[in-house]
Amino acid sequence: VKTGSSRELSALEHDRADGEPVSLRFGDSADLFRRMRRIEGQARGVQALILGGGSCQEIETQVKAMRGALEQVMRILYACRLLEGVDRAVGPLDPEAVRRALWS
Asked: Quick one: pLDDT band at residue 18, thresholds 50, 70, 90?
């Protein structure tokens, strides 16, 4: 599956409608972007199966894969939100130290 180009990944870090940089202080925005691109590709695959007369079992298998991928994205985001809350409640956390402790 083709992932986002370096230009798209760079844009992810710097482009938002309000002009503020996108920040996942306790997460990896490039990783999440790649995961979402994969899910987008899976959705296109499901559409092709539907239009191409794929069986219900084939379509169901692909939709289950998409759901699993989305659930993984949500787990990452829940962890990020939890850490953001702790950061606000107890004071600044070192994002790099948190990443090393949790995801290395």
From this structure: very low
